[in-house]
Amino acid sequence: MQGTFRFSFGPWNISEGADPFGPTVRESLPFAKKLDMYKSLGFDGIQFHDDDVVPNMNELTPAAIIAEAGKVKKILDRHGLVPEFVAPRLWEDPRTVDGAYTSNSAADRKYALDRSKRTIDIARELGTRNIVLWLAREGTYIREAKDSVEAAKRIADAIQMMLDYDKNIRVMIESKPNEPMDHTYIPTIGHAIGLGLLTNDPARVGCLIESAHAILAGLDPSDEMGYAMAHRKLWSVHLNDQNGLKFDQDKSFGAVDLRRAFNQVRILDRHGFGNEGEWVGLDVKAMRTQRIEDSTKHLRNSRSIFLRLLELSRAMDDKAIARCVEARDYEELEGIIIKGLIG
To answer: Residue 299: which H helix or E strand, with range?
Structure first.
């Protein structure tokens, strides 16, 4: 069974040229100008943080937030763009400095829950049922500062609150082992899937796998994707690449390890990813050295690399591969894969 692939990215992926060690070096492109670029780059879907849609949402009433989101929905419709998901940004406000759902401050936890409700309001207005949780600060710099049992329960309770708030939404957990926190409570997709079992509706709790996050956990992204698909929980991906166990680099997909990228494409395609409406999302950043007029080539490159690897995978001699597997002639199999990638 082959997959069906359509592509999305978030407006933050046309970045201002910041890295973890320096300020921005490019001017910010207006949101409207970014929207104009989607179709020409071959993308039909758009990913959102809540404040990408309503930038000043902390200053607005719930009704005003919904009204602003409705205006954005009309703009998306004019551009022919589909909103893939909305994610609450719970890692930049001063009230989330010690975590959001797992903060040691009850008042800060309440802020996180209220903001999550507003995110759902925005998603409903835009026309998507997908809520992504990147649990950025749900961890600690020092283990003794928090109780990990209580922390897991608090995250699960927050997800339960969201499921109860809107019976239509589904929550996609995007796991990451570290950064910005030293120790995170949901470091892998296995943790994310297990977390859903602590709610009363685990069928609505799935995951989004980011290539770089799996690599940072010392895992192979294609294996993580396969594990999630075996559970029917892989509802989105963030494809990118990563130079080893360093900071989260968000490099163009396939830019570091083509074989690793090939196996991600292959596992998605062979198991019908996209046939139930899933998107191939990119989370890639242009290099800091890139000029503003060339600051979308990383998106173009990532999509074209995906499609080329898809061609190569589908052109592989599956019968020859099956014979190698049957004979356990893995050296021959490796030769087939490498030669296929060399072309």
So the answer is: helix 297-315
Does residue 334 fall inside a structural domain?
no
Q: What pTM did the predictor assign?
A: 0.97
How far CA 108 is from CA of 49, 56, 101, 104, 113, in Å, comes to: 19, 19, 8, 8, 9
Q: Classify residue 164: in a domain, yes or no.
A: yes
Where in the sequence is the domain holding 296, given as residue range(s)? 7-316
Tell me which DSSP letter residue 16 carries.
Answer: -
Residue 281 falls inside a structural domain: yes
CA distance linking residue 80 with residue 73, whole number of Å: 10
The answer to whether 318 is a known catalytic residue is: no
Read off the pLDDT band of 142 (50, 70, 90). very high
Question: Is 11 among the domain residues?
Answer: yes
Active site residue 52: yes
Total number of domains constituting the chain:
1
Task: Give the tens place of pLDDT for each residue, 31-40.
Answer: 999 999 999 9
Assign residue 68 the CATH number of its domain.
Answer: 3.20.20.150
Find the helix packing angle between 258-270 and 221-230, rounded to 10°: 10
The residue annotated as part of the active site, out of 44, 50, 51, 52, is 52
Q: Catalytic residue among 49, 213, 238, 298, which?
A: 49
